[in-house]
Input
Amino acid sequence: MSPYSLMDDRKKRILQAVTDDYISTAEPVGSRTIARRYDLGISPATIRNEMADLEESGYLEQPHISAGRIPSQKGYRFYVDFIMQTKGVSDEERLRIRRRLEERKRELDLVTEETARILAQLSNYAAFVLSPVSRAAVLKRLELVQVDPQLVLVILVVDPGFVRTHLVMTERQLKPEQLAYINSYLNSRLRDIPLSKIGVSLLKEIAAELKEYSNVLEATLEAVVQLLEHRQEEAVVTDGQINILEQPEFREVESAKRVFDLLAEDDTVSGLLVDTMNAGSIRVVIGRESPHPNMDICSVVSAPYVVDGVPIGAIGVLGPTRMHYARVVAIVELVACHLGEILSKMLVM
Amino acid sequence: MSPYSLMDDRKKRILQAVTDDYISTAEPVGSRTIARRYDLGISPATIRNEMADLEESGYLEQPHISAGRIPSQKGYRFYVDFIMQTKGVSDEERLRIRRRLEERKRELDLVTEETARILAQLSNYAAFVLSPVSRAAVLKRLELVQVDPQLVLVILVVDPGFVRTHLVMTERQLKPEQLAYINSYLNSRLRDIPLSKIGVSLLKEIAAELKEYSNVLEATLEAVVQLLEHRQEEAVVTDGQINILEQPEFREVESAKRVFDLLAEDDTVSGLLVDTMNAGSIRVVIGRESPHPNMDICSVVSAPYVVDGVPIGAIGVLGPTRMHYARVVAIVELVACHLGEILSKMLVM
DNA sequence: CGTTAGCACTCAAATGCATTGAGTGCTAAA
DNA sequence: TTTAGCACTCAATGCATTTGAGTGCTAACG
Output
């Protein structure tokens, strides 16, 4: 028997009322309150009966016997899936989002940072952005520049969208012709190769072919590996952690600390975002639905962003389980959409 | 009359006992406790009398009339200036610091991040690092590389120690000779010029001289300005904010939030570090000695780090006024010293 | 038969009050 | 000058009481 078969329309409206009210007040909601505040045309007694049913089937729970009800995990889940209507974002806000992103269009890092900031400000929760990684990303160019008798600058240009540099010490200075030769050789071997194909083995092969320059090359190629890895590490940008402290459920420092710990472990957050990216659609993870123990008191709304129909990253908002889902879902969806559009302009180059 | 004239040796020892005890327990200290825990050879009554004197002259205060004493701001100041002995750091720790820094020696950003992390871990407070900026920094090289028909990569190499890149859109593709010409011209004008001298006026002048390429140059030079500014913004790296939540004085979320707000405003922290760098020596700022209102419940220990005798940056630790000054001062001094040494190896190139 | 009113019941939170204990200042004795 | 003794203060603690919002159950109502 599906659990939802028990859910008639009136129960739905009551669950909605309880959830809406609890989301905005953070106080358990009683039957009287609902009868007063929401015009359902039924008496507190009837509401009590319905609430008892809802509790029995697991959508509501009582912190203690003589308190009002609050939504359970299952209740939030039902609310998110079948009840709430995502709240439209005002045109003005929409415009502001777009404008702020446009302004930062120049550099990829800045766009992701700005996105995180926008999300945090709009949602009033903590926000994070997984930087765009493209499976199709290719090494566009690899350049060595002698900047000093003993220093070579390695420049990696990756398409779509980022540039990394690294300084390498060399023992002897290379002549310009030598450098030019190495450059053109490296580019002939590596240009337009997908990053995923560039591994230690390929690089070793190249080093062997150019072994007269092994001196420079070893360090250089090691740097290449590092740079490509380093990018992965850096992939998550966070903002708005402070907002966590505004939430009444985190008034006790203990619980706040658990959330901060959660945010500090990059793995957890980035894993979640990667999952969302792969899933390819907006996701709402409520409390213990996530395996992570510190997540039990939190929910996360996350969405991938898409360029040319391919998800290349994801964004997310983390708040208490009592999260303003309707609004946050709308915001996350909207921001993800704008971000995708902006990036598609930037990355198609 | 100097306030210190009243401070005989016994008073000093009592102030030390009170401060040490309060620093480790976070509880107001009474005369009995001191008599028991510290072997001063005097009775609680005597201690009471001395404490009354110390309170009168402003070194101690009472949270309420029937509680023990805690050090006042002035008390901490005296403790820091005249009483405490900075606590040696174990050789093992010393070695670990050095090794961790050595590992990250490759890239400047990584060194500052690692430094912040080390400081936070050792001190158990929040830590920050002002990235090295050298007044003597010069633009070592400015290179334009065509990476795509419509994209030019601007590379800035600054000595000492960092590289920035930026992508610029161009309307038409430049021929290699043209690019080479621009490159060599720009380098002839800008190479080895101190960053502080590179302003809008100089760049405008150059743009005028090369006005046949104004198309590319405008965007490029604008990017140069942005990059040099952007570096300033990014200058402070922070770590260990979570440690703040461990401190009993921040158990109330309100006060924790004030500190987080403080840390979130980059200006405050970076201003403080810049001051320290300019001052050229270790500084301890206690509570309201700082003008910033949210600092009243905090203290900061900060020290410049020095390359070739010149302070080029600063590091700092922020904790509650009840900070473990002796230990933190030792740590900050030590880390600053190691950082300076590591950087001098990196930057002299 | 679903809905509502009434009522007894529950329990967290707030309130009031006495107790405890760590701490103080003052005074007088050592 | 130091210390012992003593009266005093006051935050914190514990405990009983009250309050009030909320519930479940039952019986009456349309």
The first strand of chain A starts at residue 60 and ends at 61. Residues 28, 30-33, 44, 48-49, 51-52, 62, 65-69 of chain A lie near DNA strand D (CB under 10 Å from a C1'). The CA atoms of residues 263 and 269 of chain A lie 7 Å apart.
